[in-house]
Amino acid sequence: MKIAPSLLSCDFSKMGSEIERMDKAGADWMHLDVMDGHFVPNITFGAPVYKTVRKYSDKPFDVHLMITDPLKYIDDFADAGADIITFHVECDSPIDETIEKIKSRGIKVGLVIKPKTPASAVFPYLDKLDLVLVMTVEPGFGGQSFMADMLPKVTQIKDECKKRGLDLLVEADGGIGEGTIAQAAAAGVDVCVAGTAVFKADDAAQAIEKLKSLIRKKSTTETMARRCHILLDMDENHVKDRMTYKQCAKKNEVGYVTVASTVKKFATNGLEDALKYHRNENSNNARRKVDGRMEATLVQIACGPVPEGHSRWTISMLADEMKVRFGENSISRDAVWRTLKKMNLNHTAANIGACRR
């Protein structure tokens, strides 16, 4: 995971020294938000200002154009020293022509999508891009709250790239901090733009290291949850029988012992009971498949961080999160409770951070 401090949150009166500070603090990229007051309701800085501060760091400068007609200004920002230029798929400029213009200047190119724009909007251009930036706030101002419901877009883009054999980065911008970066990492984000979390911290170096440590800590839990998810998910080629440990190991590209130890780790949380339930060939196959996904998803949610402002998960909160992940509103509180009870999670809630009724 790369951390790209957003200069939108810096002290504009000393932008050069602010860039130097972030460079020394361990930033991977510098993120510059360019706004024209038309595409978004704010105005920041243009290429002349950007050109004067380029000398303060050798780190890649990631220029995010929140402007109506980015094609007109590509040469200006290229001449100013941009390493990466991203522009919005919702802009007025021809998308293909703008992409080619950026590439012709030897600069990496990315497309950006606003919260109300579906991930599929960038699919036609993926083979021409180096990255996709998913906005996790409404663009225009810093300091906004993180929109977790944007993260499924990251997964959709990653899945589409994998399907087509493409290797590109996904960046997230907006509301990234200690309480949200693990969620972004779990969704597959490669680059996190962080503004207030680093610029307003007492020690920027500690703030950046803290963000990266949260990612490292979360990655271990997420890997375990991912393996459990695949284990619980029905193998399309073996509808009647549960996926075996051996099949799971092959699909995950890990050893048999790793899968077995994963199951053992979660067995106290009712996973073993869930597996036994799914091995029951007398149960309806389709129902088993749906239940398996619900159980695996609940394990992932429960192993994740509790939303800010809460000390534990509640049934309602779990149900709401399930609706987001499944993309439907048919998941009720009772369905979540029955699933937890069936997995024997209700009396071991303290072990994984899930709630009691």
Can you walk me through this structure?
β4 (84-88), α4 and β5 (108-113) form a beta-alpha-beta unit. Residues 230-242, 266-290 and 345-357 have low confidence and may be disordered. The protein has 357 residues and is of the alpha/beta class. The radius of gyration is 22 Å and the shape is globular. An eight-stranded parallel β-sheet has the order 1-8-7-6-5-4-3-2. α2 runs parallel beside α3, α6 (181-187) packs across α8 and α8 (204-232) runs antiparallel to α12. Helices cover 45% and strands 11% of the residues.
| Strand-pairing-aware structural class | alpha/beta
Model regions low in confidence, pLDDT < 50 over at least 5 residues: 230-242, 266-290, 345-357
Q: How many β-strands, per DSSP?
A: 8
Instruction: Describe the strand arrangement of the main beta sheet, using strand numbers.
Output: 1-8-7-6-5-4-3-2
Q: Determine the number of helices (DSSP H or I, runs of at least 4 residues).
A: 15
- Assign an overall shape: globular
Largest sheet: 8 strands, parallel
- Share in β-strands: 5-15%
Termini separation: 36 Å
Task: Summarize the helix and strand pattern as letters.
Answer: EHEHEHEHEEHEHEHHHHHHHHH
Report the average pLDDT across residues: 79
How many whole angstroms does the radius of gyration measure?
Answer: 22 Å
Helical content class: 40-55%
